[in-house]
Amino acid sequence: MKNIINSIINKDCIEEMKKINDNSIDLIIADPPYNLSKGNTVKVGKLQQDIGMGGKWNKVMENWDNMPFSDYIDFTIEWLTEAKRILKDTGSMWIFGTYHNIGIINFVCQLLEIEIINEVIWYKRNSIPNLSGRRLTASHENIIWCHKGNAKKRKYYFDYEFSKNGNFEEDLLKKSGKQMRTVWDIPNNKEKRELEYGKHPTQKPLRLLKRMINLSSKEGDICLSPFSGAGSECLAAKELNRKFIGFEIDKEYYEICLKRLNCKEVDKKCLNQ
Fold first, then answer.
1. Which of 44, 90, 240, 247 is the 20 to 30 A CA-CA neighbour of 158?
2. What's the half-sphere exposure (Cβ side, CA atoms, 13 Å) at 187?
3. Alpha-carbon dihedral angle through residues 11, 243, 191, 183, given to the nearest 10 degrees
4. What is the pTM of this model?
5. Cα–Cα distance between 26 and 13 in angstroms, integer?
6. Is domain 2-120+143-152+191-271 in CATH 3.50.50.60, yes or no?
7. pLDDT tens, 113-167?
8. For 34-53, what is each residue's pLDDT tens digit?
C-alpha cells in the first residue's frame, strides 16, 4: 500500500480497495454516486424527456450516476464492505448523500453492522433555486458519520476540542465555545483556485471537507477517497498534513485530480503489489 500513498488511481475503487490491507486506513470520505440520473424516458406532449430520481433539473447526466435500483444496492454493499474492512478500529467514515440515496446507505450500514455516529445536515444557504415551481427548493445534503465498532467498542478518533472551539466564522449556526451540532451552515460556493483546472458536478467545497478531516483525524493519518471526482477530499487532506489515497474511474476527472494535487501517474507495477 505504501506505493500508492499520496496518489490518485484511475481505476475502480472496489477492485482497488480489495488490494489494501485490513485495518490500515484512518479516515474515509466517500461521495458516491447519488444515482440521480436513474429513471425512465417519459413522453411529455410531443417531447421525449429523461427524468431521473431527482427530477429533470437534478440529473448529473453521467453514466456512473445511472444504475438500476437493484444494482445500486449491490454496488453500495460492495464498496461499503471493503471500506469497513480496510478502516481502522480508531478510524471513521463520512458518506455524502441526499434523500434519493441516503436511505439505502443507512440501510446498508446497519446491514453490515457499521454504527452510525451522527447524521449531519449540510445546509446550503446559497442553493440553486427550484425551477419547476412544483416542490420546495432543495437546500441541504445529508452526511452520515460512522465507524466499524458498536456500543461496546467505540474507539474512533474525535477532536472534541476542535468541535467546540475551532474557527467556524462562515457557519452562522455555530456558536463559539458551544458544542457543535448536527446542522452545518456552510456555503457551497468554491474559491477560484478550487475550479482552476475544471470542476466536477458534485464537487464539495474545501471548507466543508476540512471540517470533517479536522474532527476525525490527526496529522499524518491516511485519508482515503473512494470516489475522488475532482480531488477535493484528497486536496483538503494534503493541505491539513494528512496522507491521502484517491480512486477516480473517470479519465477526465482523474486528469483534474492530478493537476490539482500535483501528482504523477502511479506506475502500473505499483498497483499490482
1. 247
2. 7
3. 100
4. 0.86
5. 17
6. no
7. 999 999 999 999 888 888 888 889 989 999 999 999 887 889 999 999 999 999 9
8. 876 544 443 334 444 444 44
